[in-house]
């Protein structure tokens, strides 16, 4: 694997300085840590060499830089790969697996309430973001503002009621509140409901505590919500219930429950900030939607935590690594996080096959198209591997710019035989010549299809590298780089 170590640059003066060289894309062109903080996209067809080519190089470079990692997993062998990468980079002690059968646990709700800047509103916003993604993947009208607002309000109030009753509630308790809300206005004010339902008991306990200030106001709002809820029509109530319960269910059903909703936290975003390489070994391709939500929750929490830390006290870069990123995109959070990532020293690395795939995962709507465009714009370094997707190739070809071509055309009416008389009389054969200037792509879409995908005999992956606002040493805004694959 010699070439990696030549191309991955080591021995910095200040390891976390943004000007720290990270890796080379040619003999004369270096990508720095600061540039990586502006986001990295690796795009290419399946088998184009994304993971084993540029992905491998950039992962090693960031491990060498001492960064903390959150690694999101889609494929079943991702965790093993990261364990090996950590070992080879001398970071074996930092490797931590989060997955079924392991000791690591994160109670998402408790952490989100107790983390710096944590609040009921912050947690509810997280659930809103997940509910939005959930409704897109189920195709159930993610754009309907009324239902989104209703679900957001229900989630907020249920968390609040659980907190009033349980102090540091778990997601299971939030769900118990949701399931025990009254069904009629009469029930809402009845003694039976207050005594026998979980939600009623939470509120009664809060009343007994004679709360003051913000907590007293919260109790009042929760009481008003219970009455409002009971007065809703059955249909409205059941849709609202289902929307919130769907999100809670992702965390509370099956293997995820023991990891993210067990009332216990032994591993959290704090560990990522402290330099651990946390690998979420709940691959989406095996555990499906619940695993996707578990990983999204982790990602949103790490993003929040990184963005509000004091970088002077802790300047260590934090990497959010998502291979098969289409499963882990959250447009509202990602775009916001990316816009301040450099300042916060957060490196987002996303790998995916194509633009349409991202759009599809976000619901396939025109809104999803805009979100994907915004997201890809925000990832400044683009490493474009072999691809045959016409939409993706067209989009990136446009990005790489055009150049002016002069096209010549000409015609002649001279026959095959020599015209002796015409020649004597001085007649010249009819001929014309014209030229036109046209702007044509510097890197036409079809050329992405020809880039090398690696494998034997050369084990070299080719990719076009583009960085917003940069002219490379070849005088262009793009260059074709070669990335060696590790041979085993
Ligand atoms: N270490 C290696 N030695 C030899 N061949 C390899 C090695 N790693 C990957 N390959 C081969 O190189 C090609 C590119 O593999 P890679 O997994 O990096 O592609 P990818 O773009 O990440 O694909 P996908 O989108 O399916 O994840 C594949 O044909 C793979 O079998
Ligand atoms: Mg891959």
Please outline the major beta sheet: 9 strands, mixed
Tell me roughly what share of residues is in helical segments. Answer: 40-55%
Supply the CATH class of the largest domain. Answer: Alpha Beta
| Structural class by sheet pairing and helices | alpha/beta
Bound molecules: adenosine-5'-triphosphate, magnesium ion
Radius of gyration: 29 Å
Distance between the termini: 9 Å
The CATH superfamily of the largest domain bears the name: P-loop containing nucleotide triphosphate hydrolases
| CATH topology name of the largest domain | Rossmann fold
Mean pLDDT: 90
Strand content: 15-25%
- Give start-end ranges of low-pLDDT stretches: none
Number of helical stretches of at least 4 residues = 22
Global geometry: elongated
Give me the count of strands. Answer: 13
In CATH, the architecture of the largest domain is 3-Layer(aba) Sandwich
Question: How many domains comprise the coordinates?
Answer: 2
Q: What is the topology, as strand order, of the major beta sheet?
A: 5-6-4-7-8-3-9-12-13
Overview of the molecule:
- This protein is an alpha/beta fold and 488 residues long.
- The chain folds into two domains: 2-100 and 268-399 and 447-484, Rossmann fold; 108-256, no CATH class.
- It contains 22 helices and 13 strands.
- The protein has helices at residues 2-7, 33-37, 51-64, 78-88, 108-114, 120-137, 145-166, 171-179, 185-188, 191-196, 198-208, 213-231, 234-252, 257-260, 269-273, 284-307, 331-339, 341-344, 355-361, 366-378, 390-399, 420-424; strands at 21-26, 29-32, 40-43, 68-72, 95-98, 277-280, 318-322, 346-352, 381-384, 402-412, 431-441, 460-467, 478-484.
- It has a nine-stranded mixed sheet with strand order 5-6-4-7-8-3-9-12-13, with helices on both faces.
- Strand 1 (21-26) and strand 2 form a beta hairpin.
- It starts with a helix and ends with a strand.
- 46% of the residues are buried.
- The mean pLDDT is 90.
- Magnesium ion binds next to loops.
- Magnesium ion (MG) binds at residues 50-51, 323.
